[in-house]
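Data availability (excerpt). The following record was deposited with the supplementary files.
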Amino acid sequence: MIIDAYNTTQDVRGRSDYLTGARPGEAPPAHVPFDPQRILSRMDAAGVDMAMVCSLAQRIENDFIIGLQDAHPDRFIGFGQVMPQADDAVEEIQRLADAGIRGLKLHPSMHGYHVADHGLLDPVFRACAANGMAVIINALDDAFCAPFSIEEIAKDHPDVPTIIAHMGAV
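Predicted structure:
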């Protein structure tokens, strides 16, 4: 079985310039609704059996990811997203798990927290452990998500499969 381990897949609807790829001051491109068949066709052409799908837009897209996984459970492995500093982060993780989402995507640089902040992330990792969820963390070239800090939190939570995305790339 071949699994594509990382796909940022979303249905943005012009929600922010960042998510549409527009440069500051430019109008975002016209909204083109996400068509799951487009990614499924590419997966088929490449011989990919399943793909992990996540979003950049934290909770605003979680329902989209749930729907995508529900519509194609044999092809898509959904990862939700939370902002750990949100008051309801742990509750949202439970909601994701109850919906069958298998992992959590964390993006410290985008959401403004440090992965070394155990007071913030320990409850998130405990909720993921309780629900058998993996965690994927973007490790970009900045202080928010240095790979050594990810290693530290992963060692403190050995029961949570932790995936480092990008490994310090910009």
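Summary of structural features: The chain is about 40% helix and 20% strand.
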